[in-house]
Amino acid sequence: MATNRTFTMLKPDSLEKGNTGSILEKINAAGFKIVAMKQTQMTVRDAQTFYAVHNERPFFNDLVEFMTRGPIVAAILEKENAVEDFRTLIGATNPEEAAEGTIRKLFADSMSENAVHGSDSDENAAIEGAFHFSGREVF
Ligand code: GDP
After folding, report:
1. Cα separations (Å) of 92 from 38, 82, 98, 110, 137?
2. Fold of 5-43+72-137
3. Residues with CB under 6 A from ligand 1
4. Which of 57, 79, 104, 137 is the least crowded, having the fewest Cβ atoms under 10 Å away?
């Protein structure tokens, strides 16, 4: 079923580098409406749960360590075709392979520290949004 929402996190590297405003500007300019947003820090348990699908991967512990080392900005975004359009806006997982002008091309340093998360399906967008926000935080 089509949805108009996706979920994103600006990862700790983005906040450490002071890129929050610049990245949000790109998101706004691309036509996404922010319907929920907060700055927060994930616990180790949060990150292990959020990324449970990767728990057999060799990079899992590094990913959890990275995602918990500082605050993130979590947001739910609304736009027609939100999941696919946002994946296009952020670019490939590896910034070296990301298209010119994408958020990861502009703001990410490496495959692991790649600036932003974007849901990969409508189903995961709903699950991930509900992980970070209660109903009364979504507008
Ligand atoms: P995404 O959907 O583009 O974020 O990519 P994935 O779902 O495949 O991976 C989730 C996250 O794990 C990525 O955004 C990276 O932060 C991290 N990651 C993926 N592959 C690697 C890798 O090979 N090495 C490391 N260190 N991190 C990775």
Report:
1. 25, 16, 4, 11, 30
2. Alpha-Beta Plaits (3.30.70)
3. 59, 62-63, 93, 111-112, 114, 117, 120
4. 57
